[in-house]
Amino acid sequence: MQLPFSRDAFFEVFAAYNDSWWPVALVLWTATLIAFVIRLRGRNASEWTFGLLAIQWGWSAVAYHASLFSRINPAALLFAALFLIQAGLLIWYGVAQQRLPFSDERPSAYLVGSALVVYGLLYPLIVLVGDHSYPRVPTFGVPCPTTIVTVGFLLLVRGRVPPLVSVVPVMWAAIGGSGAFLFGVRADLALPIAGLALALRTWSTRPAAIA
User: Fold this and answer.
1) Band of the pLDDT at 105, cuts 50, 70, 90?
2) Are 14 and 57 in contact (CB under 8 A)?
């Protein structure tokens, strides 16, 4: 696949992000950890959680795609628009309409979702395993860990996930997952798994099997 940017330019974008925005990344990471701990304790703070995730999608759209990635990839502006749409959908379904309540049960989807949230929280450490070194690595608040964490929380939702909420995360799971092979970001190998799990939860004709 011929890309409009080099491998070196790709990682320089992350370096610029981390140099400028590491305090924001740390705040978003901490807030996500708190949201997950609250969920593990059985509190159904879904509105707060999906409001936080909406902020992360909006942040990734503006601070990463529009401000930085667009310097090397014209398609980044389209990605930014999609991420802003996803932020709006999370606000609408998760906060305004309260249609993403967490389940009180713990089926297989709960275990997969929890594992993905934990993986997303560990993502900044996982990317450092191998040939990559800080700051030229994706950390937190950028598209791939945002997608992984979001899918994880969506799998904790009671019942079937609204299709509109799933479209962009599934799309990015495919797009971002290519980074594992094109750029050697092994942490992104979880993206195809996350995308498949969310697609099954959303569009499976047998929701009871994964609910």
Assistant:
1) confident
2) no
Separation of alpha carbons 148 and 193, rounded Å: 9
Report pLDDT for 82. 98
Q: What is the dihedral of CA 63, 58, 37, 150, to 10 degrees?
A: -110
| E-strand stretches of the chain | none
DSSP 118: H
Q: Which helix (H) or strand (E) holds 187?
A: none
Model pLDDT for residues 56-94, shown as the tens digit of each residue:
999 999 999 999 999 999 999 999 999 999 999 999 999
What beta strand segments (E) does 8-141 contain?
A: none
The residues near 209 (Cβ < 8 Å, ≥ 6 apart) are none
Spatial separation of the C-alpha atoms in residues 177 and 186, rounded to whole Å: 9
**Rg of the chain in Å (alpha carbons):** 16
Domain boundaries, the chain: 7-204
pLDDT at 1: 59
Compute the distance between CA of residue 124 and CA of residue 139 in angstroms, rounded to an integer.
Answer: 4
- The pLDDT tens digits of the residues spanning 86-103 come to 999 999 999 999 999 999
Element (H, E) at 99: none
Q: Could you tell me which of 172, 164, 191 has the C-alpha nearest to residue 180?
A: 191
Residue partners of 9: CB distance under 8 A and separation at least 6: 72
DSSP designation for 153: H
